[in-house]
Amino acid sequence: MSSVESRLRAVPPHALPATAGALLSEGFGAREVTLLLADYGLTVLQPVTLLPHTGEPVSAHDGPAGTAFTSQKPVVEITADPATELVHLPITVRGDRLGVLSVRLPAGSSDTATVLRLGEFATALGHEVATAGRDTDLYLQARRTRRLTLAAEMQWQLLPGRGCARDEYTIGAHLEPAYAIGGDNFDWSTEADHLTVTVTDGMGQGIDASLLTGLTVSALRNARRAGIGLADQAALADQAVYAQHGGKVYASTLLLRFDLDTGAVRAVDAGSPQLYRLRGTAIERIELTAQFPLGMFEETPYEEQTFRVEPGDRLVAISSGVHGTSSAAGDLFGEHGLRQILGATRQTPPHETARAVVAGLIEHTGSKDLATDAAVLCLDWAGRGAGTAEGTAGAV
Predict the structure, then answer these.
(1) What is the pTM for the complete model shown?
(2) Of 310, 226, 218, residue with least CA distance to 265
(3) What residues have CB less than 8 Å from 359, skipping those under 6 apart?
(4) What pLDDT is stored for residue 393 in this prediction?
(5) Which pLDDT value is given to residue 289?
(6) CA distance linking residue 113 with residue 352, whole number of Å
(7) What is the pLDDT, as a whole number, of residue 53?
(8) Where is the PPM-type phosphatase domain (predicted)?
(9) C-alpha–C-alpha distance, residues 94 and 128, integer Å
Protein backbone atom coordinates (compact mmCIF):
# COMPACT_ATOMS: atom_id res chain seq x y z
CA MET A 1 0.00 0.00 0.00
CA SER A 2 2.92 2.37 0.60
CA SER A 3 3.81 2.31 -3.10
CA VAL A 4 0.18 3.02 -3.96
CA GLU A 5 0.13 5.99 -1.58
CA SER A 6 3.36 7.35 -3.03
CA ARG A 7 1.95 7.11 -6.56
CA LEU A 8 -1.22 8.93 -5.50
CA ARG A 9 0.85 11.66 -3.86
CA ALA A 10 2.99 12.06 -6.98
CA VAL A 11 0.19 13.05 -9.37
CA PRO A 12 -1.37 16.50 -9.81
CA PRO A 13 -4.43 17.10 -7.57
CA HIS A 14 -6.95 16.87 -10.42
CA ALA A 15 -5.54 13.52 -11.60
CA LEU A 16 -6.40 11.50 -8.48
CA PRO A 17 -9.57 9.83 -9.89
CA ALA A 18 -7.85 8.74 -13.09
CA THR A 19 -4.78 7.54 -11.20
CA ALA A 20 -6.95 5.60 -8.75
CA GLY A 21 -8.61 3.89 -11.71
CA ALA A 22 -5.27 2.95 -13.23
CA LEU A 23 -3.92 1.60 -9.94
CA LEU A 24 -7.03 -0.47 -9.23
CA SER A 25 -6.96 -1.84 -12.77
CA GLU A 26 -3.36 -2.95 -12.29
CA GLY A 27 -3.77 -4.35 -8.80
CA PHE A 28 -7.30 -5.76 -8.82
CA GLY A 29 -8.37 -6.05 -12.45
CA ALA A 30 -10.91 -3.24 -11.97
CA ARG A 31 -12.88 -2.45 -15.11
CA GLU A 32 -14.44 0.78 -13.88
CA VAL A 33 -13.73 3.08 -10.95
CA THR A 34 -15.93 5.99 -9.82
CA LEU A 35 -15.20 8.48 -7.07
CA LEU A 36 -18.42 9.87 -5.60
CA LEU A 37 -18.44 12.77 -3.12
CA ALA A 38 -21.27 13.70 -0.78
CA ASP A 39 -22.89 17.02 -1.59
CA TYR A 40 -23.13 19.79 1.01
CA GLY A 41 -26.68 18.83 1.96
CA LEU A 42 -25.76 15.13 2.36
CA THR A 43 -28.58 14.21 -0.01
CA VAL A 44 -26.67 12.75 -2.98
CA LEU A 45 -23.31 11.31 -3.95
CA GLN A 46 -21.90 13.03 -7.02
CA PRO A 47 -19.40 11.43 -9.42
CA VAL A 48 -16.15 13.36 -9.83
CA THR A 49 -15.40 13.92 -13.51
CA LEU A 50 -13.81 16.68 -15.54
CA LEU A 51 -15.98 19.68 -14.70
CA PRO A 52 -18.25 21.30 -15.69
CA HIS A 53 -19.47 17.86 -16.79
CA THR A 54 -20.51 15.36 -14.15
CA GLY A 55 -22.19 12.00 -14.00
CA GLU A 56 -25.65 11.25 -12.66
CA PRO A 57 -25.77 11.56 -8.85
CA VAL A 58 -27.07 8.74 -6.67
CA SER A 59 -28.79 8.86 -3.29
CA ALA A 60 -26.58 9.29 -0.25
CA HIS A 61 -29.03 7.23 1.83
CA ASP A 62 -30.53 4.55 -0.43
CA GLY A 63 -29.17 2.01 -2.89
CA PRO A 64 -25.82 0.20 -2.65
CA ALA A 65 -23.60 3.31 -2.71
CA GLY A 66 -25.84 5.21 -0.28
CA THR A 67 -25.89 2.23 2.08
CA ALA A 68 -22.09 2.09 2.04
CA PHE A 69 -21.99 5.81 2.86
CA THR A 70 -24.50 5.78 5.72
CA SER A 71 -23.41 2.46 7.26
CA GLN A 72 -19.69 3.14 6.71
CA LYS A 73 -19.29 -0.46 5.58
CA PRO A 74 -18.39 -1.92 2.16
CA VAL A 75 -21.33 -3.08 0.04
CA VAL A 76 -20.98 -5.64 -2.76
CA GLU A 77 -23.60 -5.15 -5.48
CA ILE A 78 -24.53 -7.97 -7.85
CA THR A 79 -25.02 -6.29 -11.21
CA ALA A 80 -27.06 -7.09 -14.30
CA ASP A 81 -23.80 -8.07 -15.99
CA PRO A 82 -23.01 -11.59 -14.74
CA ALA A 83 -19.33 -11.06 -15.55
CA THR A 84 -18.86 -8.21 -13.06
CA GLU A 85 -19.84 -6.97 -9.60
CA LEU A 86 -19.61 -3.56 -7.97
CA VAL A 87 -17.91 -2.94 -4.65
CA HIS A 88 -18.89 0.31 -2.92
CA LEU A 89 -16.38 1.49 -0.30
CA PRO A 90 -16.90 4.38 2.13
CA ILE A 91 -14.27 7.11 1.96
CA THR A 92 -13.70 8.58 5.42
CA VAL A 93 -10.80 10.62 6.76
CA ARG A 94 -10.41 10.62 10.56
CA GLY A 95 -14.15 10.35 11.01
CA ASP A 96 -15.09 12.88 8.31
CA ARG A 97 -17.24 11.12 5.70
CA LEU A 98 -16.30 12.32 2.21
CA GLY A 99 -18.06 9.90 -0.10
CA VAL A 100 -17.81 6.48 -1.74
CA LEU A 101 -15.41 4.72 -4.09
CA SER A 102 -17.24 2.36 -6.46
CA VAL A 103 -15.09 -0.32 -8.11
CA ARG A 104 -16.32 -2.74 -10.80
CA LEU A 105 -14.50 -6.07 -10.49
CA PRO A 106 -14.70 -9.40 -12.32
CA ALA A 107 -17.50 -11.51 -10.83
CA GLY A 108 -16.47 -13.60 -7.83
CA SER A 109 -13.32 -11.63 -7.06
CA SER A 110 -14.63 -9.61 -4.11
CA ASP A 111 -13.56 -11.97 -1.34
CA THR A 112 -13.05 -10.66 2.21
CA ALA A 113 -9.31 -10.10 1.81
CA THR A 114 -9.82 -8.18 -1.44
CA VAL A 115 -12.54 -5.97 0.06
CA LEU A 116 -10.28 -5.18 3.02
CA ARG A 117 -7.46 -4.17 0.69
CA LEU A 118 -9.86 -2.05 -1.36
CA GLY A 119 -11.01 -0.38 1.85
CA GLU A 120 -7.42 0.53 2.67
CA PHE A 121 -7.05 1.96 -0.83
CA ALA A 122 -10.23 4.03 -0.41
CA THR A 123 -8.91 5.46 2.86
CA ALA A 124 -5.57 6.35 1.26
CA LEU A 125 -7.40 8.01 -1.64
CA GLY A 126 -9.58 9.94 0.81
CA HIS A 127 -6.55 11.41 2.55
CA GLU A 128 -5.15 12.52 -0.79
CA VAL A 129 -8.47 14.06 -1.87
CA ALA A 130 -8.65 15.98 1.41
CA THR A 131 -5.11 17.26 0.91
CA ALA A 132 -5.66 18.04 -2.78
CA GLY A 133 -8.60 20.27 -1.84
CA ARG A 134 -6.07 22.89 -0.77
CA ASP A 135 -4.75 23.20 -4.31
CA THR A 136 -7.71 22.62 -6.62
CA ASP A 137 -11.42 23.50 -6.70
CA LEU A 138 -12.30 20.25 -8.46
CA TYR A 139 -13.47 18.33 -5.39
CA LEU A 140 -15.27 21.28 -3.82
CA GLN A 141 -17.11 21.92 -7.08
CA ALA A 142 -17.99 18.26 -7.43
CA ARG A 143 -19.81 18.40 -4.08
CA ARG A 144 -22.29 21.01 -5.31
CA THR A 145 -25.71 20.35 -6.73
CA ARG A 146 -26.12 24.10 -7.17
CA ARG A 147 -24.24 27.29 -6.46
CA LEU A 148 -23.44 28.24 -2.88
CA THR A 149 -24.25 31.73 -1.65
CA LEU A 150 -21.17 33.79 -0.82
CA ALA A 151 -22.02 33.58 2.88
CA ALA A 152 -22.23 29.79 2.67
CA GLU A 153 -18.93 29.64 0.79
CA MET A 154 -17.31 31.52 3.66
CA GLN A 155 -18.91 29.31 6.31
CA TRP A 156 -17.96 25.97 4.74
CA GLN A 157 -14.37 27.14 4.40
CA LEU A 158 -14.40 27.99 8.10
CA LEU A 159 -15.56 24.54 9.24
CA PRO A 160 -13.08 21.83 10.34
CA GLY A 161 -15.13 19.16 8.54
CA ARG A 162 -18.38 17.36 9.29
CA GLY A 163 -17.00 14.68 11.56
CA CYS A 164 -14.06 13.60 13.68
CA ALA A 165 -13.30 10.28 15.36
CA ARG A 166 -10.86 8.89 17.89
CA ASP A 167 -11.01 5.92 20.21
CA GLU A 168 -12.47 8.15 22.93
CA TYR A 169 -15.27 9.77 20.90
CA THR A 170 -17.03 10.15 17.56
CA ILE A 171 -18.42 13.46 16.30
CA GLY A 172 -20.95 13.99 13.51
CA ALA A 173 -22.37 17.40 12.62
CA HIS A 174 -24.69 18.96 10.07
CA LEU A 175 -25.67 22.44 8.86
CA GLU A 176 -28.73 23.69 6.95
CA PRO A 177 -29.62 25.39 4.71
CA ALA A 178 -26.44 23.85 3.33
CA TYR A 179 -26.23 26.05 0.24
CA ALA A 180 -27.23 29.30 1.98
CA ILE A 181 -25.91 28.97 5.55
CA GLY A 182 -24.92 32.26 7.13
CA GLY A 183 -24.13 32.49 10.84
CA ASP A 184 -24.11 28.99 12.35
CA ASN A 185 -20.85 27.13 12.89
CA PHE A 186 -19.30 24.22 14.77
CA ASP A 187 -15.63 23.76 15.51
CA TRP A 188 -13.35 21.35 17.36
CA SER A 189 -9.74 20.68 18.18
CA THR A 190 -8.39 17.38 19.51
CA GLU A 191 -5.22 17.14 21.58
CA ALA A 192 -3.38 14.34 23.40
CA ASP A 193 -5.42 14.68 26.58
CA HIS A 194 -8.45 16.82 25.75
CA LEU A 195 -11.02 17.80 23.14
CA THR A 196 -12.45 21.30 22.66
CA VAL A 197 -15.81 21.76 20.90
CA THR A 198 -17.70 24.95 20.11
CA VAL A 199 -21.08 25.67 18.53
CA THR A 200 -21.60 29.28 17.42
CA ASP A 201 -24.66 31.17 16.20
CA GLY A 202 -23.79 34.55 14.74
CA MET A 203 -26.55 37.16 14.85
CA GLY A 204 -28.25 38.09 11.58
CA GLN A 205 -28.30 36.50 8.15
CA GLY A 206 -26.25 36.28 5.00
CA ILE A 207 -22.90 38.00 4.62
CA ASP A 208 -23.19 40.01 7.83
CA ALA A 209 -23.79 36.87 9.90
CA SER A 210 -21.00 35.01 8.14
CA LEU A 211 -18.51 37.82 8.76
CA LEU A 212 -19.52 37.99 12.41
CA THR A 213 -19.17 34.22 12.88
CA GLY A 214 -15.86 34.21 11.03
CA LEU A 215 -14.50 36.83 13.42
CA THR A 216 -15.86 34.98 16.46
CA VAL A 217 -14.51 31.56 15.48
CA SER A 218 -11.14 33.00 14.51
CA ALA A 219 -10.91 34.84 17.84
CA LEU A 220 -11.81 31.65 19.74
CA ARG A 221 -9.20 29.68 17.80
CA ASN A 222 -6.57 32.34 18.39
CA ALA A 223 -7.23 32.28 22.13
CA ARG A 224 -7.38 28.47 22.25
CA ARG A 225 -4.08 28.15 20.40
CA ALA A 226 -2.50 30.50 22.93
CA GLY A 227 -3.12 27.76 25.51
CA ILE A 228 -5.43 29.71 27.82
CA GLY A 229 -8.47 28.40 29.69
CA LEU A 230 -11.99 28.10 28.35
CA ALA A 231 -13.43 31.11 30.21
CA ASP A 232 -10.58 33.31 29.03
CA GLN A 233 -11.08 32.07 25.47
CA ALA A 234 -14.65 33.32 25.67
CA ALA A 235 -13.56 36.62 27.23
CA LEU A 236 -10.97 37.37 24.55
CA ALA A 237 -13.39 36.48 21.75
CA ASP A 238 -15.99 38.69 23.44
CA GLN A 239 -13.55 41.60 23.41
CA ALA A 240 -12.68 41.04 19.76
CA VAL A 241 -16.33 41.05 18.66
CA TYR A 242 -17.21 44.07 20.83
CA ALA A 243 -14.20 46.03 19.58
CA GLN A 244 -15.36 45.48 16.00
CA HIS A 245 -19.10 46.00 16.41
CA GLY A 246 -19.57 47.94 19.68
CA GLY A 247 -22.35 45.69 20.95
CA LYS A 248 -24.63 46.18 17.92
CA VAL A 249 -24.34 42.50 17.00
CA TYR A 250 -23.14 39.47 18.92
CA ALA A 251 -22.51 35.74 18.64
CA SER A 252 -24.08 33.10 20.88
CA THR A 253 -21.57 30.36 21.63
CA LEU A 254 -21.35 27.12 23.59
CA LEU A 255 -17.80 26.09 24.55
CA LEU A 256 -16.96 22.60 25.84
CA ARG A 257 -13.61 21.11 26.90
CA PHE A 258 -13.48 17.35 27.50
CA ASP A 259 -10.80 15.64 29.58
CA LEU A 260 -10.14 12.41 27.69
CA ASP A 261 -8.90 10.56 30.78
CA THR A 262 -11.70 11.37 33.22
CA GLY A 263 -14.71 12.44 31.17
CA ALA A 264 -14.86 15.75 33.06
CA VAL A 265 -16.28 18.54 30.90
CA ARG A 266 -15.71 22.26 31.39
CA ALA A 267 -18.40 24.43 29.80
CA VAL A 268 -19.17 28.07 29.07
CA ASP A 269 -22.69 28.86 27.89
CA ALA A 270 -22.47 32.23 26.16
CA GLY A 271 -25.88 32.47 24.54
CA SER A 272 -28.49 30.32 22.87
CA PRO A 273 -27.06 26.91 21.78
CA GLN A 274 -28.59 24.13 23.87
CA LEU A 275 -27.03 20.85 25.02
CA TYR A 276 -28.72 17.48 25.59
CA ARG A 277 -27.31 14.28 27.06
CA LEU A 278 -28.57 10.79 26.25
CA ARG A 279 -27.59 8.24 28.89
CA GLY A 280 -29.13 4.82 28.38
CA THR A 281 -32.77 5.51 27.50
CA ALA A 282 -32.89 8.82 29.39
CA ILE A 283 -32.72 12.16 27.58
CA GLU A 284 -31.99 15.26 29.63
CA ARG A 285 -31.12 18.83 28.84
CA ILE A 286 -27.91 19.88 30.55
CA GLU A 287 -28.87 23.13 32.23
CA LEU A 288 -25.95 25.52 32.19
CA THR A 289 -25.95 29.06 33.56
CA ALA A 290 -26.69 31.32 30.61
CA GLN A 291 -24.09 34.07 30.26
CA PHE A 292 -24.01 36.97 27.84
CA PRO A 293 -23.33 36.24 24.14
CA LEU A 294 -19.90 37.18 22.85
CA GLY A 295 -19.65 40.85 21.91
CA MET A 296 -22.86 42.04 23.59
CA PHE A 297 -21.09 44.11 26.27
CA GLU A 298 -17.57 45.38 26.80
CA GLU A 299 -15.18 43.12 28.79
CA THR A 300 -17.76 40.61 29.95
CA PRO A 301 -16.33 38.13 32.48
CA TYR A 302 -17.14 34.45 31.89
CA GLU A 303 -17.20 31.53 34.29
CA GLU A 304 -16.76 27.83 33.64
CA GLN A 305 -19.11 25.12 34.86
CA THR A 306 -18.42 21.41 34.99
CA PHE A 307 -20.31 18.21 34.35
CA ARG A 308 -19.32 14.66 33.45
CA VAL A 309 -19.78 12.27 30.57
CA GLU A 310 -19.62 8.50 30.98
CA PRO A 311 -18.83 5.79 28.43
CA GLY A 312 -21.90 5.27 26.25
CA ASP A 313 -23.18 8.85 26.67
CA ARG A 314 -24.32 10.85 23.68
CA LEU A 315 -24.26 14.66 23.68
CA VAL A 316 -26.24 16.71 21.17
CA ALA A 317 -25.70 20.46 20.79
CA ILE A 318 -28.18 22.51 18.76
CA SER A 319 -28.31 26.13 17.67
CA SER A 320 -31.31 28.41 18.13
CA GLY A 321 -32.32 27.70 14.55
CA VAL A 322 -33.26 24.20 15.73
CA HIS A 323 -34.88 24.73 19.11
CA GLY A 324 -36.43 28.10 18.27
CA THR A 325 -37.99 27.42 14.86
CA SER A 326 -41.76 27.34 14.32
CA SER A 327 -43.93 25.73 11.66
CA ALA A 328 -46.19 27.74 9.34
CA ALA A 329 -48.96 27.23 11.93
CA GLY A 330 -46.78 28.72 14.65
CA ASP A 331 -45.96 25.44 16.43
CA LEU A 332 -42.48 25.49 17.95
CA PHE A 333 -40.23 22.57 17.01
CA GLY A 334 -38.72 22.82 20.47
CA GLU A 335 -37.82 20.16 22.96
CA HIS A 336 -40.68 17.75 22.26
CA GLY A 337 -39.81 17.28 18.60
CA LEU A 338 -36.12 17.07 19.39
CA ARG A 339 -36.62 14.41 22.07
CA GLN A 340 -38.67 12.26 19.70
CA ILE A 341 -35.93 12.29 17.07
CA LEU A 342 -33.10 11.74 19.56
CA GLY A 343 -34.91 8.75 21.04
CA ALA A 344 -35.63 7.24 17.62
CA THR A 345 -32.02 7.64 16.46
CA ARG A 346 -30.29 6.48 19.66
CA GLN A 347 -28.66 3.52 17.90
CA THR A 348 -27.67 5.33 14.71
CA PRO A 349 -24.19 6.86 14.18
CA PRO A 350 -23.69 10.52 15.23
CA HIS A 351 -23.56 11.68 11.60
CA GLU A 352 -26.99 10.22 10.88
CA THR A 353 -28.48 11.51 14.12
CA ALA A 354 -27.33 15.07 13.32
CA ARG A 355 -28.80 14.79 9.84
CA ALA A 356 -32.05 13.30 11.19
CA VAL A 357 -32.55 16.23 13.57
CA VAL A 358 -32.24 18.71 10.71
CA ALA A 359 -34.49 16.54 8.49
CA GLY A 360 -37.11 16.52 11.27
CA LEU A 361 -36.86 20.29 11.55
CA ILE A 362 -37.35 20.69 7.80
CA GLU A 363 -40.39 18.40 7.92
CA HIS A 364 -41.78 20.41 10.84
CA THR A 365 -41.51 23.72 8.97
CA GLY A 366 -43.07 22.24 5.84
CA SER A 367 -40.42 23.82 3.59
CA LYS A 368 -37.26 22.42 2.06
CA ASP A 369 -35.55 25.79 2.56
CA LEU A 370 -35.15 26.77 6.19
CA ALA A 371 -35.64 30.47 6.93
CA THR A 372 -32.95 30.42 9.63
CA ASP A 373 -29.66 28.61 10.03
CA ALA A 374 -29.65 25.32 11.93
CA ALA A 375 -26.58 23.56 13.34
CA VAL A 376 -26.52 20.17 15.08
CA LEU A 377 -23.46 18.50 16.58
CA CYS A 378 -23.70 14.96 17.97
CA LEU A 379 -20.89 13.41 20.05
CA ASP A 380 -20.71 9.79 21.23
CA TRP A 381 -18.40 9.35 24.21
CA ALA A 382 -16.37 6.17 24.83
CA GLY A 383 -13.69 7.58 27.13
CA ARG A 384 -10.55 5.85 28.29
CA GLY A 385 -11.88 3.17 30.62
CA ALA A 386 -11.91 3.13 34.42
CA GLY A 387 -10.71 6.72 34.75
CA THR A 388 -14.07 8.00 33.53
CA ALA A 389 -15.87 6.65 36.58
CA GLU A 390 -14.32 9.08 39.07
CA GLY A 391 -16.38 11.94 40.45
CA THR A 392 -16.05 15.63 39.75
CA ALA A 393 -16.91 18.43 42.17
CA GLY A 394 -19.50 20.87 40.92
CA ALA A 395 -21.01 18.49 38.38
CA VAL A 396 -24.28 19.58 36.80
Answers:
(1) 0.91
(2) 310
(3) none
(4) 34
(5) 94
(6) 28
(7) 55
(8) 166-381
(9) 13
